[in-house]
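Before any further analysis, backbone shapes were mapped to integers, which produced the following:

***
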Amino acid sequence: MTDLNETLAMSDFDEGAFESQEEQDLVQMVGFYLGDVLYGVDILMVQEIIKEISVTAIPDTPDFIDGVINLRGRIIPVINLSNRLGLPRPGAGVLEESWTLILNIGERVTGFTVDHVTRVMKIPASAIEPPSDTASGALDMQYVSGACQLDTQSMVILDFNRILVVDDLKRLAEQKRQQG
């Protein structure tokens, strides 16, 4: 079994091992739902996907922070993505389960609670359009990096680097502490 951290030199590949131009122009996205809207995140950011995990609440945190989890000895913060984005939530008891996307964002590993994870989708890079002001309704457009049309519906691609701006999170936590 090859170590995932092992570095391979370009000379280690034979010419036939490279992907075709079509395959190189595909972006792999993990699809997930918040309410009835399909969202996507680049698969390269996804460390893992967890269904129903126990989250430990932390006092005096913003409402969108669910708490923390212990993931194989690492303490990982978990953010409720709907609350972070200010999206309306379905009525109480509608969701029987939730999923947590564990993402690598910059140098940080963070969990995001979503309603349901769908599948990995290969999307032509040319099909991803820049965000438009009307593309996602109630969603603040600063969190959107693009959108694309799939067979039966549209997918909004989120910019998790912008969603997880640490200075904003610290400021919100401080505001909550001051409110008492």
Remarks:
- Residues 87 and 138 are 6 Å apart (CA to CA).
- The chain has one domain: 26-179.
- The mean pLDDT is 79.
- The beta strands are 26-34, 37-42, 46-51, 65-71, 74-80, 99-105, 108-114, 116-124, 144-149, 154-158.
